[in-house]
Design a protein that fits this description.
The protein has about 220 residues and is an alpha/beta fold. It contains ten helices and eight strands. The two termini are about 30 Å apart.
Length: about 220
């Protein structure tokens, strides 16, 4: 796992080095409040869903807890939090978004809350071509001030079209159409949601249980508008 994370970090660094300087920032300059407030514990709320897939929330919820813990934060067990929220009649995160967050500190002892929004969880299919898009917007807000501490978006677009090496003519088109249909049916949204999370988490300042805590202010990230 450490080797995979190191490889991803290296690839992202190489990608950033090839981008225009104006599109590059540091974690310290983009997310200063994370370093000022230094949250230790995060409470993950059920995602808000703007996609057309009704099952997206349940699928995505399974991908968030582990990467946040790996980034050095204490993460409240997602299932327990969800059960408590249901008992309190507050399972709909959309209704909580604009409310003061101090109750989460009172009830759970959480330093901050993670809001996630599924912007896209879509499969565009047109016989010979198909694209799967997973786009997640994430935001961390303080439970003491309700202010935004961190905000980022991770997007993955996957080409599920059949191989173009199947030859020409009608037979080639049929083979490509079949391959596209198979790829689309077998598309693993959860897998690509994890990839989107990787892009999100790379831009997140590490927490107190990480070896580089408070040492990553100069790490480069893509500036987002």
């Amino acid at each position: 796992m450490k080797t995979i994370i190191l490889f991803i970090s290296l690839m992202v660094t190489l990608f950033l080095s090839g981008c225009a300087t104006k599109d590059i920032a540091t974690k310290g300059s983009e997310f200063p409040k994370m370093y000022e407030e230094q949250p230790r514990s995060l409470l993950i709320l059920p995602p808000m869903n703007e996609s057309t897939d009704a099952e997206a929330k349940d699928y995505y919820m399974t991908t968030v807890e582990v990467p946040l813990a790996q980034m050095g934060y204490y993460v409240f067990p997602v299932e327990i939090v969800s059960d408590i929220m249901k008992q309190e009649g507050a399972y709909n995160t959309e209704l909580l978004y604009n409310m003061p967050l101090d109750r989460f500190a009172e009830y759970f002892g959480a330093d901050a809350v993670l809001f996630t929004k599924i912007k896209k969880w879509d499969l565009m299919y047109a016989v010979l071509a198909a694209n799967l898009t997973v786009s997640i917007e994430a935001e961390i807000r303080s439970t003491s001030t309700s202010e935004q501490l961190w905000h980022y978006t991770g997007t993955v677009v996957v080409d599920l079209s059949g191989s173009s090496d199947s030859g020409g003519g009608l037979a080639g088109l049929i083979v490509k159409a079949v391959a596209t249909a198979i790829n689309s049916a077998a598309a693993d949204y959860v897998r690509y949601a994890r990839v989107a999370n990787t892009r999100l988490m790379y831009a997140l300042p590490v927490g107190p249980y990480h070896g580089r805590y408070m040492q990553d202010q100069n790490d480069q990230v893509m500036r987002q508008k």
